[in-house]
């Protein structure tokens, strides 16, 4: 299976990129890098892709396991190298679960399955960055 994405320059430092979902997104540089800051930054978008990919796995597993979770979010904190080409060499991924009846063992299993087995973006990151996975349970 292949993905084909078209990315079109829309002037200045801005681009518009399509997606198989049918939605488009705008990419732009920050003003200090010559852009208008009117779009998403490419490297940060990679972190959103990582969190989104794993989040979809975990949300699916929460549903399949019939777990009660009031809220759930993922924080990705990445270190960018100093030398060009700059890339993420270390990424911390934090899973935060909120609820009054959290089944911590099962939620951790869902995170582990995403990290170790299902999330393709996680596997791609593993090829160039040191990953640190943390899970936090916030009881209400």
TrEMBL record:
Matches recorded under InterPro entries: KH_dom-like_a/b (IPR015946), OsmC/Ohr_fam (IPR003718), OsmC/Ohrsf (IPR036102)
Top-level taxon in the UniProt lineage: Bacteria
The protein's name: OsmC family peroxiredoxin
Organism: Flagellimonas allohymeniacidonis
């Amino acid at each position: 299976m292949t993905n084909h994405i078209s990315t079109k320059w829309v002037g200045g430092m801005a681009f518009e990129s399509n997606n198989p979902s049918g939605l488009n997104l705008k990419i732009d540089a920050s003003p200090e890098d010559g852009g208008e800051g009117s779009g998403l930054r490419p490297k940060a978008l990679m972190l959103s892709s990582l969190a989104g990919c794993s989040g979809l796995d975990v949300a699916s597993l929460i549903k399949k396991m019939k777990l009660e979770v009031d809220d759930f979010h993922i924080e990705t904190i990445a270190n960018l190298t100093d030398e060009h080409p700059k890339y993420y060499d270390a990424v911390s991924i934090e899973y935060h679960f909120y609820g009054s009846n959290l089944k911590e063992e099962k939620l951790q299993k869902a995170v582990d399955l995403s990290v170790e087995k299902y999330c393709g973006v996680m596997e791609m990151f593993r090829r160039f960055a040191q990953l640190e996975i943390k899970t936090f349970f916030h009881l209400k």
